[in-house]
Design goal:
three-stranded antiparallel β-sheet; 226 residues; 11 strands; elongated; four-stranded mixed β-sheet
Length: 226
C-alpha cells in the first residue's frame, strides 16, 4: 500500500502543477466573485458517546415496556448532548475532464434556463493531505476500511479515527460505508487541507469512469488556469 501511495505522489497528485478540472452548471457567480469562495456547512456530533449510548439503551427499554413517560424523559436528554461543528464546504475537483463535464450539466443549476455551464482547468497549492485508495467504489459511498486506511497512512491512529467517526455518525446504522460528505467532516476535524479519493466511479448519471477526486477546503489554494 505504501509503495502505491508513493507512486501516486511521484505522478504528481500532490503537486501544485498537476491539472485538475471543476465542472459547474453555472459559472456566473464564480466569475463575478473572481474565483472560488469559502462556504461553510454545519454537522452534528455527540461528544459524550458513553452517555448517549446509555440513553439509547434506556429508550429501548422504555419502548419495550410502552412507558411513554420514561421515553419522553430520555428523549429530552438527547438534545443537550448534540454539538455543532462547522466546516468549510469542500470544492470538488477531478483529474478527468469527462467526469467534470458531467457536473457541468445546466439542468443542475438553480436558474438553468440562463445558466452558463463550464469546465474549469485549475491547479492546487495545498500542503497537508490524505490519499484514500477507493478503486471501484461509487463516489458518494466509500468503503469505511479504505477511508480508515487513508487516514492511518496520513498519521491518524485507528483509535482516534474510530472515536471521531462514531461521534459524527452516531445516527448511522450502516457502518460499512461512509458518505463523502462525512469524509470531508473528518478531514476538516483533523486539520487536513485536501483529500484525494483515488479510483472512484463517477456517481452522477450512473457513470462508470474512474478518476481521482480531490476535495479542497481552502478556495485560496485553487488557481484557475482557464
Amino acid at each position: 500500500m505504501k509503495s502505491f501511495i508513493k507512486s501516486l505522489l511521484r505522478e504528481g497528485l500532490n503537486e501544485s502543477t498537476y491539472v485538475w478540472y471543476h465542472g459547474t452548471p453555472d459559472v456566473r457567480d464564480l466569475e463575478s466573485d473572481g474565483g472560488f469562495t469559502e462556504r461553510s456547512i454545519t454537522a452534528e456530533y455527540i461528544e459524550d458517546l458513553d452517555k448517549y449510548n446509555e440513553i439509547q439503551r434506556q429508550l429501548d427499554i422504555a419502548r419495550e415496556n410502552d412507558d411513554d413517560g420514561a421515553y419522553h424523559k430520555y428523549i429530552a436528554m438527547v438534545g443537550p448532548l448534540r454539538k455543532k461543528f462547522t466546516i468549510r464546504k469542500p470544492i470538488f475537483l477531478t483529474n478527468v475532464h469527462s467526469v467534470a463535464k458531467t457536473y457541468a450539466d445546466p439542468q443542475r443549476a438553480f436558474d438553468y434556463q440562463n445558466s452558463v455551464e463550464k469546465v474549469l482547468k485549475v491547479s492546487v497549492n495545498s500542503n497537508r493531505g490524505i490519499t484514500i485508495v477507493a478503486t471501484g467504489d461509487r463516489f458518494r459511498f466509500i468503503n469505511i476500511n479504505k477511508v480508515k486506511q487513508g487516514f492511518k497512512n496520513a498519521g491518524i491512529s485507528e483509535d482516534e479515527f474510530n472515536l471521531v467517526f462514531n461521534q459524527f455518525n452516531f445516527h448511522t446504522q450502516n457502518r460499512d460505508n461512509i458518505r463523502t460528505d462525512d469524509i470531508a467532516i473528518l478531514g476538516e476535524y483533523f486539520g487536513f487541507d485536501y483529500i484525494d479519493i483515488v479510483g472512484v466511479l463517477d456517481s452522477y448519471n450512473n457513470g462508470n469512469t474512474k478518476s481521482t477526486v480531490r476535495m479542497v477546503f481552502n478556495p485560496k489554494d485553487i488557481k484557475i488556469l482557464q
